[in-house]
Amino acid sequence: MRVAVMTAGSRGDVAPYTGLGHGLARAGHQVTLVTHACFAPLAEAAGIHFHALPVDPRSELESAPGRDLHRSTTGAGKLARVIAMARNVIGELTDDMVAAAQASDVLLLSATLGALGHTIAAGLGLPSMGVHLVPIAATGEFAPPLTGARSWGRPGNRLAAHAVNSAVDRIFADTDHALRTRFGLPRTGTRAARRAREQQDWPVFHGFSELVLPRPRDWRPGLRVAGYWWPHDPPSARLSPALDDFLAAGPPPVFVGLGSAVVPDPARVSETVVRALRTAGLRGVIQCGWSGLRADGEDMFSVGEVPHSALFPRTAAVVHHAGAGTTAAALRAGVPAVPVPVQFDEAFWAARLAALGVSPGAVPLRRLSAGALTTALVRATTQPAYGQRARALAARLRAEDGVRPVLAAVDELAGGRRPAA
What we know:
Layout: E1 2-6, H1 15-26, E2 30-36, H2 40-46, E3 49-53, H3 57-62, H4 64-71, H5 75-89, H6 94-102, E4 106-109, H7 114-124, E5 128-132, H8 153-183, H9 190-199, E6 204-206, E7 223-225, H10 241-248, E8 254-257, H11 266-279, E9 284-287, E10 300-303, H12 308-311, E11 317-320, H13 324-333, E12 337-339, H14 346-355, H15 370-382, H16 384-398, H17 403-414
Parallel strand pairs: 1-2, 1-4, 2-3, 4-5, 5-6, 6-7, 8-9, 8-11, 9-10, 11-12
Helix pairs in contact: 1-17, 4-5, 5-8, 6-7, 7-8, 11-15
């Protein structure tokens, strides 16, 4: 079966689907990753096909609206700005999404493109499923992750989730209307379309583990937790000889990276991180990332893109922005974490790490100081309980197979059956 996996966003919104796609391809399906052109190498390394979408997410974050997003100090402000940014560019993706769908038999849709992908699937008469990295469906058990970690109680959490989803639906409203006209579909609003998907129990698989976030008991049957889809690293993926030499030259260092997050003052953040590491008596591997972090000195090593699966197990701890993908990579490696959440769902995942006992707690970027980071690093690297719990959880996570439930559902679609809830 020809399977198109459609997603948009930063690297963390894309990389897990290389593992999912690779697993489906190994089972005999023809898989195409449909996302921004800059991520073509990820698909090539995973041995799956690729269909490019326009828009460079990094350029968008470095634009004037993107800089305004970084300067926003509240979660609501950041959400409003990112919705406005996405709404301005979402229409540019539709022609290539349609072209990719026309060459496919089934669509697997991330949360970032789900609304449009579902309309395209309906217009072409194709089956579709959601493949989400973050839980966006309303539940009373926790607040919507895009708002952070604070809970408003069961009724408040559900109301907040509906409010966030309604706000996100505005991104797609105009483009979805144009698509419906293009396909001759009945005109309906994006909110009504979301309610229809829920009433039809449209299947959605979530790419995280119930060991990390248990499935909410008040979710509808079609919302399932599959397990992690680990980004595919080919057998040839290796650390550079220089990095390998650095790791061998002393005690395990601490990895520091903010992934695709962008910060207003990279020089200040870099200086703060290096000071904290040295005060704690720790070596560091500093990833440049989209923030442009830098570090100099014999006790520091700066890197660009690096396979987390090869590096993280050789570290004493991982300091990261707590994006869903990097959170998963640190958990898989079995090392303690010090989250530095920047925005959106990162505070949510940071809170989960603390609740699991593999982190001493978050040091949010807006409150980042050398003193606070030093304290967290010392606790993470000198109190054995964090490492013990991290290793125990990692062993259980590595035993899971997050691809298998999705593969079973795709196989059912290939046989003309609706995936079982």
